[in-house]
């Protein structure tokens, strides 16, 4: 009997269906050992100096939890009896490291016993299908120690930064805080965006649109846009004309209402649009956030299930490559389902944007393109179906013909009685062939313009002048934050979701309307770190460290000298900051209410282990505490007695409920649309 070891029971069941007799597929239930939870777990040993610099050796102390110890004992018995033990963990650095840890724990430690060591074989596949698994079994290899070293270096770096920097935060900000090498940089992005929003000054502008029509209209043409009506906007020198006050807007309006109009030009251009590349981890998370409203964490959890059930290829990847057999299957499917016009003669190939596509070797795609059309096929849950549909459509579309059409730009000149001239413009487009739009679900967004000729006279039908104000930059959401991290080359496919989860769990940011806002604690931590560790929190520095980890994975650097090069200056800097840096005060939000217990202090909103709570500003002199109700200024639409408040499920997901619960069971995932304003409702202010 051959033993096959994977991480999860779901993956084990899927593999077992393909392998059948002769193979015993078992799950390790994730990591079999790791660094200890409540201490550094890395021994730092100073070595001899070279070129005047101190060098260090790092000895990680890996431990096995009590829960995993029993499982390892069971697997050890099975591996001892097996002819060969195949390590079939995920095809990335973390999976390689898990395989190495499993082999280290299971193989015999007796000197000279090479038979035990040689029975462990590493197999890698990027999709859980029978052909892929059989191919992997036919070509087993040894564990790639370069990948293991890269993962080990990342783990040790993050542990050293987190466990050595956190005590400094305890001393200078607040006890119980923690910091991370990459998470702190993500927090900085969110804080800097919030500061941009706070400093933003709205600028007034006026949006003026003029509806024109032909003086002579062919009566045989049906009504609507093609009857001769045209909506144009003010432009100057080819760009939008900016009017920044009501006086200028009124002047323009008066001039335009009495002006004469003539078509200055009609420009037509044919276009073709190529479909986007198949999903990578980053683009999948961004699209799921925008289309489905999912967090990065949820997207990866659902994708993990799809992968383990053999429905998609490996979901942690920054590659846009597609296997030849997959593109061939997609083109055959397209010809059969949509016709020859929609199919490509040759497969479309996308360039890889990442400098080093170090995770998987393929983009995320369905393992069987025809499966989605099978009416008998069912997903394990609704979320899997929704995510699979996104992946399937993106993959099929990427091998379909371009969408083709024509864009039209009509420019109009106006001449007022006062002699003022205004340029106006309208743009539209028509789709001649929908191509990949047919399957992608993308709106055609046609904007039809009437047939017009240069020199044609027009007359005004209507004019609207609307006052508007420029808006501040939007707070980051999952999609925009991941996109920015990727563009800055901070983090890698497997780290985006943990980064976002960590800064939320530490209460450094909160999610408001699906966007990230730094808490007062997050602001204080960020300001301290940026002020005292400017180099380590610099975006380029973090990106270069990621490049160094890639170099280790490629065998271009050794992991221990790489960490030593970072640790020497960083440890000295830590000591200096601990001795000289000033404390940072965490600001609190005030409610404007007097403390009901002492009547002297003010009720403020503080952050605790389990989130926000109310307390007296005179603490510890006054120990008043109360639950914080995150009111949104609305009466409950069901009972009309209580107020609508934001609450959280046990899993941390936000929802809206009634403050009178359990007397009133109103609950909604979305904000009520027809609220009744609560009298005297106030918004907490920062002091």
Total number of beta strands: 24
By CATH, the topology of the largest domain is Topoisomerase I, domain 2
Please list the strands of the largest sheet in the order they lie side by side: 7-8-12-11-10-13
- Overall geometry comes to globular
- Any idea what the CATH superfamily of the largest domain is called? Topoisomerase I, domain 2
- Mean pLDDT, to the nearest integer, reads 87
Count of runs of 4 or more consecutive helical residues: 18
General description of the model:
The strands form 6 sheets. The protein has a 6-stranded antiparallel β-barrel with strand order 7-8-12-11-10-13. It is 35% helix and 23% strand. The protein has 687 residues and is α+β, with helices and mostly antiparallel strands. Strand 16 (589-594) and strand 17 (602-608) form a beta hairpin. Mean pLDDT is 87; it is low at 222-226 and 675-687. It folds into 5 domains: 2-143, Rossmann fold (3-Layer(aba) Sandwich); 149-200 and 474-580, Topoisomerase I, domain 2 (Orthogonal Bundle), CATH 1.10.460.10; 204-274 and 403-469, Topoisomerase I, domain 3; 281-397, Topoisomerase I, domain 4; 589-686, no CATH class.
Brief rundown of the structure:
Helices cover 35% and strands 23% of the residues.
Topology:
Elements lengths: L1 E5 L2 H11 L3 E5 L14 E9 L2 E8 L5 H16 L3 E3 L5 H14 L7 H5 L1 E3 L7 H9 L6 H28 L10 H17 L4 E11 L15 E7 L2 E2 L5 H12 L2 E14 L7 H12 L3 H13 L15 H15 L43 H16 L5 E13 L5 E13 L3 H4 L16 E13 L8 H10 L8 H10 L3 E4 L2 E4 L1 H13 L6 H15 L5 H22 L8 E6 L7 E7 L2 E6 L8 E3 L2 E6 L7 E6 L5 E5 L8 E2 L16 E2 L1
Parallel strand pairs: 1-2, 1-5, 5-6
Antiparallel strand pairs: 3-4, 7-8, 7-13, 8-9, 8-12, 10-11, 10-13, 11-12, 14-15, 16-17, 16-24, 17-18, 18-19, 20-21, 21-22, 22-23
């Amino acid at each position: 009997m051959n033993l096959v070891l994977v991480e999860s029971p779901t993956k084990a069941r899927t593999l077992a269906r393909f392998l059948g007799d002769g193979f015993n597929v078992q799950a390790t239930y994730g990591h079999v050992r790791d660094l200890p939870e409540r201490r550094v777990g890395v021994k730092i040993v100073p070595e001899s100096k070279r070129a005047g610099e101190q060098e260090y050796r790092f000895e990680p102390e890996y431990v096995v939890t009590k829960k995993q110890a029993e499982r390892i004992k069971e697997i050890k018995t099975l591996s001892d009896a097996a002819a060969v033990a195949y390590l079939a963990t995920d095809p990335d650095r973390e999976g390689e490291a898990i395989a190495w840890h499993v082999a280290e724990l299971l193989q015999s430690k007796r000197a000279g016993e090479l038979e035990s060591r040689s029975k462990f074989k590493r197999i890698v596949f990027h999709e859980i299908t029978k052909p892929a698994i059989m191919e992997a079994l036919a070509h087993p290899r040894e564990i790639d120690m370069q990948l293991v070293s890269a993962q080990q270096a990342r783990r040790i770096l993050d542990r050293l930064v987190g466990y050595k920097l956190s005590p400094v935060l305890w001393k200078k900000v607040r006890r119980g805080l923690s910091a991370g090498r990459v998470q702190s940089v993500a927090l900085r992005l969110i804080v800097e965006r919030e500061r941009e929003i706070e400093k933003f000054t709205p600028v007034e502008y006026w949006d003026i649109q003029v509806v024109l029509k032909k003086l002579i209209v062919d009566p045989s043409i049906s009504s609507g846009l093609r009857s001769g009506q045209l909506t144009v906007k003010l432009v100057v020198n080819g760009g939008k004309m900016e009017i920044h006050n009501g006086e200028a807007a009124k002047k323009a309006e008066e001039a335009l209402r009495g002006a004469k109009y003539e078509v200055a030009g009609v420009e037509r251009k044919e276009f073709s649009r190529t479909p986007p590349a198949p999903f990578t981890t980053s683009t999948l998370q961004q699209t799921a956030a925008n289309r489905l409203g999912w967090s990065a964490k949820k997207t990866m959890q659902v994708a993990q299930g799809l992968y383990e059930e053999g429905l998609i290829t490996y979901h942690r990847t920054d590659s846009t490559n597609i296997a030849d057999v997959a593109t061939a299957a997609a083109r055959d499917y397209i010809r059969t389902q949509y016709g020859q016009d929609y199919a490509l003669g040759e497969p479309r190939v996308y360039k890889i944007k990442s400098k080093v596509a170090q995770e998987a070797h393929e983009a995320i795609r369905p393992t069987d393109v025809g499966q989605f059309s099978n009416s008998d096929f069912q997903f394990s849950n609704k979320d899997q179906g929704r995510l699979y549909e996104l992946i399937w459509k993106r993959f099929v579309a990427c091998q379909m013909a371009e969408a083709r059409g024509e864009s039209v730009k009509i420019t109009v000149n106006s001449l007022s009685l006062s002699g003022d001239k205004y340029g106006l413009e309208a743009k539209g487009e028509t789709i001649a062939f929908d191509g990949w739009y047919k399957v992608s679900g993308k709106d055609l967004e046609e904007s039809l313009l009437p047939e017009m000729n240069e020199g044609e006279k027009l007359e005004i039908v209507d004019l609207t002048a609307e006052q508007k104000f420029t808006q501040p930059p939007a707070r980051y959401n999952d999609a925009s934050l991941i996109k920015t991290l990727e563009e800055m080359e901070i983090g890698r496919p497997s780290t985006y979701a943990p980064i976002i989860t960590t800064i939320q769990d530490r209460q450094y940011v909160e999610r408001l309307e699906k966007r990230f806002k730094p808490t007062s604690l997050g602001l204080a931590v960020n300001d301290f770190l940026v002020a005292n560790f400017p180099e380590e929190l610099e975006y380029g520095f973090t990106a270069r460290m990621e490049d160094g980890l890639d170099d280790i994975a490629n065998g271009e650097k050794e992991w221990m000298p790489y960490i030593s090069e970072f640790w020497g200056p960083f440890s000295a800097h830590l000591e200096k900051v601990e001795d000289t840096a000033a404390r940072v005060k965490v600001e609190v939000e005030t409610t404007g209410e007097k403390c009901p217990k002492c009547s002297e202090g003010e009720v403020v909103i503080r952050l605790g282990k389990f989130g926000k709570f109310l307390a007296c500003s005179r603490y510890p002199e006054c120990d008043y505490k109360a639950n914080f109700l995150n009111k949104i200024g609305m009466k409950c639409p069901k009972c009309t007695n209580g107020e609508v408040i934001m609450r959280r499920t046990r899993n941390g997901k936000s929802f809206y409920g009634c403050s009178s619960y359990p007397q009133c069971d109103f609950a909604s995932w979305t904000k009520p649309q027809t609220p009744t304003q609560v009298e005297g409702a106030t918004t907490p202010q920062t002091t």
